[in-house]
């Protein structure tokens, strides 16, 4: 056969195969067309629930959208958006084209705000501190202000001043004050004063529901830690509903059918699935997970401070996704990212400063406006950083570009006025002058329904979430059930031989008591109290008093006939009354209580009910069921949640005034350059030289630290071994080398998982597990952790401080506990003043630290406090973990200036840093770059990062992919060119390149040089592990005392509670319960301070105990005097002081027990369960409910171990043990106390002494 014949045969075969494939494709298309024609014949409401899905192998089938499974959704999204970064825009354009093709306009909203003013009132100075004195004075002053007797002493503050502008659809705002965003979203705090006009499509805020039309995405990531990422987004989507998607899809389907248009099958299924409401997992949820890059952690728990979960960046994206899954058409996003490169993604920019709009308009004209004002952004300066600083009095001068004119400060008001005459400002003003045409606003654009779905669907969603959380917290419920079973068994065996009689009215009173305690078990009341309190401390404190009031007025402790007339309203509103009436009527009108006792004309049950003032009509059972406790508590809880201010107290607004005064005071020290970062750096070096020359009050020894061949590994996780990994160890650091010197600021950088924090923890000695190899030297001597903790400081990424002390007090305690004992008080105070000046927070010395996001210091001020707390220990070496994390450019610059000042004193500082701007990155002297546990660059940055750029450009033949461009942030460029994909493309391993470089050899030589001790030097030595023992012993009680004085919500209300309580055991239980949240908050501070080497556990515990002694004594005296007089006890000196004695020690051991349960348990829930178990058992074996003689023999031993039994013994015996008055039956009070209760009071002092001996033996 000739070659031509072979070619002909091959061509025939190929043509045959092509025809066969073509015929098969036509058949599939015809089959799909038939299926689509079948769907088209259906009515609209059925047509939008059917679709044609293409499988993995290309086969098509008709499906019901409502039964779309998880795997089918995954296949659908893979076909539509395979790679989020590349395909998402194409998908959205395809979606828009389908809608535009049939002439449907996408619903849009234009938001206008005109002359918007928001003002607040707040106390300033020392009056802003929540001390007990201020709390009491503010409470009285607020009451007098309400009566218009005294004027308010709060100072007014303007947050937004005469703000006007337009936010158009498809052009998102770049930034803005949180207050402005909250105002536009209709979520402004009710305590703020608001004026001006807000409109959506020219409709006032009262014409629709702004909270449903728009969505506010907070900068605070608040989520339920036990839920996964997918569950969090799915719950949000289920509650928000689908909005107008269903109606729009129905209209779209109708028009497509009329125009004979066949849509893309995959797109059709996606839109139909997105329009179905009531689904537990909507396809929109999976889509948002994909485009936000959350698929890798979709089934991971979000986590919180006590539960490990996703990273901080992923949590920020979850916060954004939570709103994106809903149908909101306007999104107000509050600091969703602080990365400098995101600025170029925005179209319009709103620049706010001091509550005024400086600029609003296209991003392209922003720099042009400031150039018209005489200010120019330097070439190597991020535009976002420039905008943050150009209106600041402290930073503005460096950007002055008119060298022929003298500089004078341009205030914000002048910028705002100049913008009105700028062409962009004139355009905004002209547009505001023309009202929006309401006819262009679609009725469906603005939401008028209060909820996205009906109440039944909301109830189902909430129930399913609660069931999920109960499943996730199953250990707590199992533990609680076990506790109840144990308590029930103890109670059962205690009453094993007890018989319930129904023969007399006394028997009915006993049984009514059992019913009352059953009613107390209802959890609805506790949920209501939890909803009423803004936080755990307030709920625990005032909730305890509320419980007492509800029970006292519930009809059992005091019958209805005994309640005073002016308190009857409390009886009728008490939910316990309705429950008590219903359950007692149900029991005592039963068959077993219907017999008529002798000398009576009515059934025994009715007699019992009348004796306690309870209604004896049968319909009270149904009143209790229909209108009683469950409905009352549920409605009260709902109202409390609706009106609760979960943001807590208003943040102290006086910081603005303090900042302004500080800036004006620092005017003489601000930068005097106009040429950009290079001259700024020269000024900084000059200032550093001045700092070095000046020195500090307390000298320190500059120390270097070297790392030679350091490696760190942990045991291989069992999950990875299960996947077939054979190694026993997981290496996190692989042979790392480096040197850190005094006066040199080193940046420790790398992508997530590179080993930055691991290396920092190894250097600081914070690793308590794993395997470390290699050597670490301190100025040539081997590192010893016991002494190293005394010369080093570690600033954690999380700012953990006691919230109830001031800024200066935090520094005082740190200095008191960590400085050597030979430092006198005057020197210590001078050193603290120097540190406050170094971190530029002298004006905030009396500011309360507060809780993050609630009150007190701002985020960047907390960062500087964290640095200051370590600086007052006078360390030679400081480690900082992400000191600029979560801060905007302005705040990050302030923190970095503090860090720079610290280095310029001659200390060794190492910082991990993430996503720095050009200015922040080039503030460092050297870079330690890690990748997968290995160093790939360790060396100087150079001017304009020249050394770094030169190194990476020369590490491989210069190509376009690795060549540095001046417009790129050096840190971003560095991380991009060292990725694994870039290494593969270039065929290079940067870790190997570094180890073969001259830079590596120079570093090894430097390590060798610094590993040799200098001549005449000595190793660092301290005779003790901690600074001094006595300072923590009397320093920590002082700190705790100020916590007491600074937290009125706990201690002032607790004292009031003691004054009003009427039950000894109940009062002590409440005192113990209130201690738990306080100890839980302070425990996290203790962990940080102990890790920093401040003190051991003993001084901390001793301090907590010592400070409670005088405070509880004061409580006992106040409580004892009031209750002793109210009850009418005998006014003799002996009996009164015996009463105070027992009250004091009972309060002590209950308080210490509450503190202990928090200390030995992992969280507050477990502590509550354990403590409640012993509360019940102690109450049971106290000798009051069941006297000692009636306790079964097998449980009588516990009576002697029960501390409450000794308290009750002493109280009863001291007051009634010697009274000879006779009761109705003829026996004396002394006999009555002794016979049933076995309390012998003839020798109270001896009894007390014996009880103390028994308790000492028990201990």
UniProtKB/TrEMBL annotation:
Membrane topology: Multi-pass membrane protein
Gene Ontology terms, MF aspect: ABC-type transporter activity; ATP binding; ATP hydrolysis activity
Regions crossing the membrane: 475-496, 508-529, 536-558, 1109-1129, 1136-1160, 1166-1186, 1198-1217
Chief localization: membrane
Pfam families membership: ABC2_membrane, ABC_tran, ABC_trans_N, PDR_assoc
Keyword entries, A-Z: ATP-binding, Membrane, Nucleotide-binding, Repeat, Transmembrane, Transmembrane helix, Transport
Family recorded in the similarity comment: Belongs to the ABC transporter superfamily. ABCG family. PDR (TC 3.A.1.205) subfamily.
Residues covered by region (Disordered): 645-688
Name the record gives this protein: ABC transporter domain-containing protein
Lineage: Eukaryota, Viridiplantae, Streptophyta, Embryophyta, Tracheophyta
Domain ABC transporter, residue spans: 705-957
Entry-linked PANTHER family: PLEIOTROPIC DRUG RESISTANCE PROTEIN 1-LIKE, PLEIOTROPIC DRUG RESISTANCE PROTEIN 1-LIKE ISOFORM X1
GO cellular component, as recorded: membrane
Compositionally biased tracts (Basic and acidic residues): 654-670
Keyword Transport included in the entry's annotation: yes
Record's keyword annotation contains Nucleotide-binding: yes
Subcellular location: Membrane
Source species of the chain: Tetracentron sinense
Source taxon at top rank: Eukaryota
